[in-house]
Structures
1.
Amino acid sequence: MTLDGKIATKTGSSEISGPEDLLRVHKLRKKMDAIMVGINTVLADDPRLTVHKISSESEDNPVRVVVDSKARTPLGYRILNPDAPTIIAVSSQASQEKIRSLEKGETTEVVICGNKQVDLDSLMEKLGEKGIKTLMLEGGSTLNYSMFNSGLVSEVRVCIAPMIAGGVKSKTLVDGEGADYMEDAFKLKFKKSYNLGKDLIVEYEVL
Ligand SMILES: NC(=O)c1ccc[n+]([C@@H]2O[C@H](COP(=O)([O-])OP(=O)(O)OC[C@H]3O[C@@H](n4cnc5c(N)ncnc54)[C@H](OP(=O)(O)O)[C@@H]3O)[C@@H](O)[C@H]2O)c1
């Protein structure tokens, strides 16, 4: 994120951290069983969510999880490429037709969790049953808030780039409904910080 906590500008531009940080992220991904993003991040960035910067071995790629109530993930997007398994978590709002077309992908599985938005507790339970024990959440702001609000985040690692984007419509690290009072804010305990290229990495435990 930028120093003012933005993870994208109002136009959706989100290239923030330096090359050293991208390597850090790919190394972290390699250690994880799964990586998770919200559907808006898929639509905005068309990410691969693989470890391609450090390895070309497909077995090094974690499972990719997209939180996508209505099964809006477009079929041609890179998240559905065969480089890694992908789980699309939908709710009963998703049409059977969309679910069937997503399931045609050889490496794609659809799981149904909840009736309106994806029920994150139920998704975590299903991922656990599939042997997924470590999950890295990579945004965006809306899903980040829901995961905090459900008490499902244990650790935060942020990269702060020396930039200020500004803009009331720019996405921040955590948006969503937000706390009414600071006493209701999610509380963190500082663990460590270090410089990486031009960026600053800060790690916290969630209390
Ligand atoms: N700089 C970075 O490192 C970074 C990283 C990630 C993202 N981003 C940026 O963040 C932006 C996207 O963030 P965003 O906040 O708009 O979207 P998001 O968090 O990626 O996706 C939110 C969407 O997920 C779906 N969803 C389903 N169940 C949910 C639940 N229980 N809780 C929350 N969401 C749920 C909802 O759509 P449905 O109701 O249709 O399912 C919701 O609108 C993009 O501009 C992207 O570039 C930046």
2.
Amino acid sequence: MSQSIPFARRQLGAALACVALIALPLCARADDTAKGKIIAKRWCASCHVVSSDQTKGNSDAPSFSSIADDKLTPKTLKAFLSYPHPKMPDMNLSRNEIGDLVAYIRTLAR
Ligand code: HEC
């Protein structure tokens, strides 16, 4: 009997760790504008001017600050980025990456 209490505790600890591991990615996650900027520079800057320190992009692609100025809601932007766009390659962005990108783009509004 004296052995069963620590065992039960260990079981409980393991169970809680499992719950935490499963729940973490599901918990509300704050969109990260710094990550969004990194993704934008890596994946979007070949066409879009994505930040004020970038001088040149593809003339067909609107700058991110002009996108930020358009009255697109975060929801519209997220929906746009969730599907491949004819002139844009399919980037296969995750929901978190899209959230970070949209949060970053919105910091550029003038
Ligand atoms: C290969 C070039 C290219 C790349 C790379 C690219 N885009 Fe685009 N994007 C375009 C072009 C061109 C348009 C304009 C499409 C049009 O007018 O039909 C556009 C349009 C958009 C729009 C819509 C703007 C509006 O007002 O409707 C958003 C938002 C956008 N891009 C975000 C992104 C993001 C975020 C990335 C990086 C993950 C990215 N783009 C990467 C070329 C690109």
3.
Amino acid sequence: MLQVRSRLWLPFTQMQSFDAAARTFVRGEGSMLVDARGNRVYDAVSSIWTIVHGHGHPALVEAIAAQAARLDHATTLGASNPVAEELAARLCELTGTDYAFFGGDGASAIEAALKMALQYWQQNGAPERTRFVRLVDSYHGDTAGAMSLSDIAVFKSRFGAVQFESIPFDDDEALRAPDVAAVIVEPIVQAAAGIRIVPHERYAALRDCAPLVIVDEIATGFGRTGTMFAFEQLALRPDIVCVGKGITGGILALSATLASERIFAAFLGAPEERKQFFHGHSFAGNPIACAAALASLRLFEREGTLARAAAIARRSAARLERLARHPRVRETRQAGTMIGIELREPGSGAAVASALYERGVFTRPIGETIQFVPPLSSSDAEVESFFDALEAVLA
Ligand SMILES: Cc1ncc(COP(=O)(O)O)c(C=O)c1O
């Protein structure tokens, strides 16, 4: 008989050794999470790259409550709502795309992007274009299609039966193959690979050679790398942009697959032509989530979120300079407020993260890499507290 401690089954977590008493969060306040024992810890990983303006921001709480009272949910299968309309327009304006297709989690935005690309080519005279090119060490989510575009062996090795093969972007020739539907890239940072930084030159060929470019901004979007979207720094003109995580300020499940007019136009026709996009999710365009997203975008302007992100990045860069010389540190990596500190000693990531928790800092290691991806509302003192705690633990 199993000794069941809880009915909750957590993602990417060995439940046999999980100690709910030690790691249960009951409250969020600004940059801090409060656990069931009453410890206040700095959410130094923004609850896995989601939280933007801190936990419990009154403007977001208010927007959610007001929208819930007005229209909580209505399907977008063959129907619209004004909040989804307004958000679609704002997202298109911000990304230079033309149409927004909503989903739930990041992975559902990726699935939609893949299927959009396939159906696009079928309806645009090149049905043989069915394969996808992706970066080495890529990660795009855990559903079957997104996993097929990912390159992190431990996440996907069990599930070969539901995967298709994707092509690593080793050289520009890969993009020129006549059966390629699209190339998908994480711009500038590969977060799940351990906050790896991709040199800007790597993206240059995409401008000329790729049949369609899908940019995955799910981790990098909404200010994390310094600009609203990381691809702005790469002079890329994506055909499709996927956003998620931080879109609602990082507090509700919402994602979007943003498409250019070229893509959208291929799906227009008389009903009997059956050219509409054959894909959808129950909560696509949920008004409460969309209201939170609109409120979050207003906060970017009202609170100068990008300027705060720049200040966090500068302060972190100064501390990283010193850390990079620490004998226990192999390498430090930074793109804006996405920071990885890779330790030398094999197996030390989990132990260092545990010790950080005891010092009031919550992060999740990726192998030997300690992540610092803080809420963009973090104060200078909070940023310093992360580096102080890490230096103390390493000492
Ligand atoms: C770059 C990237 N794409 C897609 C995803 C999948 O998003 P979600 O976990 O919301 O499904 C993630 C999640 O970490 C990600 O980092």
